[in-house]
Amino acid sequence: MTVVQPVAFVRNSRKGQEDDNWGDVESRIELAPGVDPVSLEGIEAFSHIEVVFVFDQVPDEAIERGSRHPRGNTAWPKVGIFAQRAKNRPNRIGTTMVRLEKREGGVLTVRGLDAVDGTPVLDIKPVMKQFLPREGTRQPAWVDELMRGYWGTGPGH
Amino acid sequence: MTVVQPVAFVRNSRKGQEDDNWGDVESRIELAPGVDPVSLEGIEAFSHIEVVFVFDQVPDEAIERGSRHPRGNTAWPKVGIFAQRAKNRPNRIGTTMVRLEKREGGVLTVRGLDAVDGTPVLDIKPVMKQFLPREGTRQPAWVDELMRGYWGTGPGH
Question: Is the pLDDT score of B48 beyond 80?
Fold first, then answer.
């Protein structure tokens, strides 16, 4: 058992848990009270950051521990919760790489973060190209169908 | 405040907190007792997975909340803890994308996971190309120097 504390919170216009069109969403990531803005020093030298956050609106009883059809769509195979990125997962942790637009003190402005307003942030990491897959990646066809409208037409991500 | 529970543990040959040559390391990710292997069903259709883990060997007093020179090397700029990926960070969370070699029931074999033996895993996610940065990334020069020996000569990652 590990206790984690938010280091920041997401502020944006997305209040509900909508599934699609996240690419255009601009978010502010505001450091939590007591977190020193010096902890962000130099982050503006990176074009992208990785945000580790909590899907805190998912209630306990909604957490899937086995397998399910992604988005409940039976046209797609039933796969384990760890073989998909759905929010109702054990520990409710989300991770997304986003474009860093600017830093002002303890506030980051990013584009393409798929988290609703008020989301607690557990960590912020710079995206380093050496941490991206070196070679091409392989994924099943259902992912491409599911992701079709996820970012929408936005330039984000 | 959020309480998280390990869903799996890392098993490998790396006992100490060495900094470099992680690329060749083969690890087993074994689901924790009580976690149903069906939660991994279909993950083998992905070439890479993202592992969210806890740097649980970092003691409280070692956690950096401000800024520091990466690896204490004064040749590199002093940057905030959220502008680097060092392990002694608030919440001690690590995230790494690794090559998935195989799945056997509740055990995944991966290559290039930079976590020591016994590390608790909080989440496992498939790497989807739509979640990787769409365009090229930009990063400061010190990162390339620091990362030079990180993966070593291994094919991993």
Answer: yes
B54, B82, B114, B124, best to mutate vs chain A, most A CBs in 10 Å: B82
pLDDT in tens, A75-105: 999 999 999 999 999 999 999 999 999 999 9
Which of A42, A80, A97 minimises the CB distance to B131?
A97
Q: Which of B2, B124, B147 to mutate to test the interface with A (most CBs of A within 10 A)?
A: B2
Q: Residue A91: which domain range?
A: 8-146
B chain contacts of residue A42, beta-carbon cutoff 8 Å: 67, 77-80, 83, 140
Question: Please, is A24 exposed, middle or buried when counting C-beta atoms within 10 Å of its C-beta (0-12, 13-18, 19+)?
Answer: middle
Phi, psi of B51 (to 5 degrees): -110, 125
Q: What's the whole-model pTM score?
A: 0.95
Give the C-alpha distances (Å, rounded to integers) separating B74 from A46, B17, B81, B103, B141: 20, 21, 15, 43, 14
Number of structural domains in chain A: 1
The 10s digit of each residue's pLDDT in A8-30 is: 999 999 887 677 778 888 999 99
Q: Which residues in chain B are contacts of A147 at CB distance < 8 A? A: 128, 130
Q: Let me know if residue A72 belongs to a domain.
A: yes
Residue B154 lies in a domain: no
* Run of H or E residues at A145: helix A141-146
Q: What is the DSSP string of B61-103?
A: GG--SSEE-GGG-TTS--EEGGGS--SSSGGGEEEEEEEEEEE
Q: pLDDT category, B69, cuts 50, 70, 90?
A: very high
Smallest Cα distance from A72 to chain B, Å: 16
* CATH number for the domain harbouring residue B70: 2.40.30.70
What letter represents residue A128's amino acid?
M
- Per the domain annotation, does A22 fall within a domain? yes
Inside any domain, residue A119:
yes
